[in-house]
Design goal:
There is one protein chain. The protein is of the alpha+beta class and 134 residues long. Helices cover 43% and strands 25% of the residues. It has a five-stranded antiparallel beta sheet, with helices on both faces. Helix 1 packs antiparallel against helix 4 and helix 2 runs parallel beside helix 3. The chain is globular. The model has no long low-confidence stretch (mean pLDDT 89). This is Roadblock/LAMTOR2 domain-containing protein.
């Protein structure tokens, strides 16, 4: 699985316009399975990425919101409601996409804030799908 994740990360870096970094997080273990970046980052930052991704998708409040949405819409499944999250910081855009095949696996792509959002989503979804993740 590690080789597959490494290949997907390399493919993301090649195919997603202006991609600065890409990674794959296993939320079940809290581990960053693979990553590639144009910059060197302290290991503490990379370790925090996995935890932040877990909070973003499965934090206590997020889970409560998902449960309320599912209840109000009559959805009776254990599947998580939120599948993709886009976060803009001062200079960067971060896209998080949950795998359709294993909802504990989340792909992360980081680009400059000037990225074309439509191209970011389309390219990332295509690469993740090509690698069996969406």
């Amino acid at each position: 699985m590690s080789d597959q994740m490494t290949a997907m990360v390399k493919h993301l870096r090649q195919e997603v316009p202006t991609c600065l970094a890409a990674g794959v997080v296993d939320m079940a273990t809290g581990m960053l399975l693979a990553f590639e970046t144009t910059d060197s980052h302290p290991s503490e930052v990379l370790d925090l990425l996995a935890g932040a991704t877990l909070d973003l998708f499965q934090g206590r409040t997020v889970t409560m919101i998902e449960d309320i949405f599912k209840e109000r819409r009559g959805i009776a499944t254990a599947e998580h409601y939120f599948q993709e999250v886009l976060v803009n910081s001062s200079n960067l855009t971060h896209l998080f996409i949950r795998s359709n095949h294993d909802e504990d696996v989340v792909t992360v792509v980081v680009c400059p804030k000037s990225v074309n959002i439509g191209m970011l989503f389309a390219s990332t979804r295509r690469v993740v799908k090509d690698h069996g993740g969406a």
